Amino acid sequence: MAILTAQSTSTAAATTLTQPAGTSGWGKFVLLLWKNFLLHWRSKVSSLVEIFIPPLFMLLMVGLRSLTEIEHVPHVSVYQPLDITNFSAIRRNLVVPFQDTLAYSPNGPALRTLLEPVGEWMKLELQPLPNGSVLQDFLLGTNAFAGVEFDIRLNGSSTLPQRLNYRLRFPGEQRAQFTVGHSWQTDRRWGSRPDGGARFAEESDGGPSPGYFREGFLTLQHFIFKSFAQQFQTIPDPIPDVYLQRFPYPPFREDSFPSSLTTFLPISVMLAFIYPCISIVKNILFEKEKQIKEAMKIMGLQNWVLWTSWFVKCFVFTQISIGLVVLFLKVPWYTTPNVSVLTYSDAGVIWLIFFVYGISIITFSFMLSTLFSKANSGGAVAAIIWFLAFAPYIIMVQDYRNLTVSQKLGSALLLNSAIGFAMRLVGVYEGTTQGVQWSTLFHDSDVDDINIGQMLLMLLGNAAIYMLIALYIEQVFPGDFGLAQPWYFFVTKRFWCGERPSSDEPVSQSVSSKMDDNIEAEPKGRIPRIQIRELRKVYSSKKIAVAGLTFNMFEGQITALLGHNGAGKTTTMSMLTGMKRPSSGTAIIWGHDIRTEMKSVRLSLGYCPQHNILFDGLTVREHLYFYGRLKGLSKLQAQYEIDKYIKALELVDKADVRSSSLSGGMKRKLCVGIALCAGSRVVLCDEPTSGMDPAARRALWDLLIAEKTRRTMILSTHFMDEADMLGDRIAIMADGKLKAVGSSFFLKKKYGVGYRLICVKQPDCDVDRVTEVLRKHIPPIQVESNVGSELSYLLQEEHSRGFQTMLEELEKRGEELCIGDFGISLTTLEEVFMKVGSDSTGVSQAGGEEASLHSLHSYSTGTDIESRTTVDDYELLEGSRLFLYQIWALFLKKIYQTYRNWFLLVVQILIPVLFVAVTIAVVRNWGGSGNMPPRALGLRFYNPSLTLIQREPEDQAQPLQQRILENYMQLFNSMPSMPFPVFDWMEDVFLEFADINLMMVNRQFIVGAGILNHNLTAWFNNEALHSPPVALQMMHNALLSTFTGSRGYNISLTNFPLPYTDETR
């Protein structure tokens, strides 16, 4: 019987390998972009969802904007002067009653002398107390009107200092209009945010919050000054009273929408871009999970090209989304002219913010993709991490007024917290009617102690940090596939100087003398292109996958790797391709050491792994084009290779069909074509014919035989006929060790038992009689198996001289012995494999012929003894017992599944706990109404500022008013503010400046003074929360210098509200 082997195909025409012209890094980059965009074009729905989800979230802001009414105030708001000395009128407006007591500390004759007139003017009883602590306890316990806390050094003093400093202690809860949200606001200089119009536009006194006039604060401040001035007065003129008046406000548009921007805009932006992040993570992990990423690297793809192509693809998609987002935010959708979600902000600046944020999103997603191996689990956890990146902002914004710059910048290391702060600033600027402009990008504004420019720099820094982390994790923890670098790899010489060529010379001796009997002599005239030297792989679990593998593979030959599951075949291939790092030993492939020159090794590799490295959205033709170009083919060469392998693989009618529509066998053929294309000199095929029908397998065999010329091929398979057909040399592995290497003929001769005589019995055949007849010619013959109608005997080669006479007699007496037919065959490769693999400790010849017979017999007679157990012997459950057992079986399955996927169980348990913890942190950090801190009052805290001073013409000013004016001007010598004297009416001058730049006026025109012959007026700008007492203080100090005749006298005060009551908290 003729046996077809790989050696018999020598008549096949020698093929010439295609020499790749070489594809530059830029060419590979363009190729990957083509692949990425083509795949997205073929998945239009998911691509459109990824692009349009962010703009659709912005439609929420568009809808919210449409629900907000805009009220126009067309006239100038002019306010009446306030008489701060009429305490009776002020008292009548206080809703919350109080005791007619004015407490002060410390107790001393000078302070009593100072405050007695104050008590008389306000009709309050004085209550001296020893110190500030007792004063606070007294005020909280008695509900007195207020407390005045002086320097403790005045305790028992009979004289007052020239520079008087005191604190006013009013209740934290306001008495005039107690409402949640209304407070003294001593924790800030400006309102929570300007709303684009006059703050409390209809209130001449500035409104209920802080409510300095309504609460009687200004009255007490004025009377303390008046009493102090009278004690040191040196001129006979009476000390005049001072009126207080609010600056006018030009026509404005009352718009409450900006107040909601600071809350909803950060959340909307965070939610808008969660899907793009998940999509990027899943797309990258898909290639990682399917091992496509590592396969591309094996075939010549540089890591930087891969990441750059992903970045550009994601950047384009993200920028399209961002363009639509900015369009939705800036388009005037509404009936009110020139009104949009961000009416005042510059579209270019808004685009820049989102542009930088988009870059940070991409690198953040890259970083997350390196933490996982599965696309679905990675996408799910990425969504959770995305929300957690926003958690610091949510927690910190509850107590925003107490945050330091370092705290804000520290939390901005998370991209969603950074964009939260940036979007909050956008909302604040929008409320000032100035909006975010290029000029305010890096400007330290008065609305916050950080600026948008800082947040942009943080986002750019975050992007760089995330990318570096992604590259580091990818190198140190590559997952199931890829070489893990040491944690310090970035400080090694190899990292900076590249791979160092190996100095090891190939050794001609391939195996030790211990294994010489089991390894066929190497073929003469063949070049060993793959030289494996003591290759060993030990996993962290101490499992030895490959143990000291040593042998050569030759050019122009196919080396078949045989072995049971877990024998180490795939691990060996993984080490040769660089997907796993050897624990020890090495391999030289075309002169390059896999330990130090893997990049050079991969330039000539073609790899067909066990799984399919195919993209569902690419066709057969596009796969061959993509991988061919990736290996270095020019476009013309790639087209030649495509036509060649489509015909050779018999996929002509499927050339333009997407791989997702191919059968399993067709996918395997395409993977083999990918490995062979572009003239790969070393081709590794891991079970390439699995899932193929017999005809397809035969066609693929012919292709591999034809393509082996000038290549070195490695083939792993479980099909013995395939190894027998294709393998020029066959290597058998068991438990990670090499058992034997040689041609099929060598192995059969070495481990085979000779021949097998197979007889077809008739029903009346006597096996003992047949055996007796055969023993006449071969005495030691014995029955190998007797199953059904088949009877077989093993024939040793040394008895071959008696075969002819035995067969002749068997043919003559066949009818007599009831033998219908018979035949003789050689030992099969399967028998050799099972015999060699039966001893995991090595092949031993010590047992001689009997051991060989017993070993083979033990594998050959597995079906001799028919099972005596049938289905009828089982008692099958029914009814409720069956149902309960099914429930129990499903429960056990869940238990095992959960135990072996414990990480998902931990995530499932911890995520609700984590969100509850974040909620508790937010609530605890907010803590209700916090106590107001002390606020020192003075114009020096508003820098820079400009003070309008209305005066009489010099020829009309009275001497007293002239001296007051001079002393008022002298106050600016000690503060970084600038006075601006005017002769026109204060309202007209202020409005002229407001028409020029309202934002500047609201931020710098804090106070003013009207020093006229008939009255003194302290002007205040209500946009600054504490401007009323500051304006009054400035006028008081000017009067004090005037009436004492010395500029050494001065009054400074602090507003220190009492702690809130438990009810208020």
Automatic annotation (TrEMBL):
The protein's predominant localisation is membrane
PROSITE patterns linked: ABC_TRANSPORTER_1, ABC_TRANSPORTER_2
Instruction: Spell out where the chain crosses the membrane.
Output: 264-285, 305-329, 349-372, 379-397, 450-473, 902-923
The terms describing its cellular component in GO are: membrane
Q: How does it sit in the membrane?
A: Multi-pass membrane protein
- Which InterPro entries does the UniProt record give? AAA+_ATPase (IPR003593), ABC2_TM (IPR013525), ABC_transporter-like_ATP-bd (IPR003439), ABC_transporter-like_CS (IPR017871), ABCA (IPR026082), P-loop_NTPase (IPR027417)
Q: Quick one: where's region Disordered?
A: 186-208
Which keywords are on file for this protein?
ATP-binding, Membrane, Nucleotide-binding, Repeat, Transmembrane, Transmembrane helix, Transport
Pfam families, from UniProt? ABC2_membrane_3, ABC_tran
Q: Which GO terms describe its molecular function?
A: ABC-type transporter activity; ATP binding; ATP hydrolysis activity; lipid transporter activity
Intracellular or extracellular location(s): Membrane
The segment(s) forming the ABC transporter domain are 530-760
Name used for this protein in its record: ABC transporter domain-containing protein
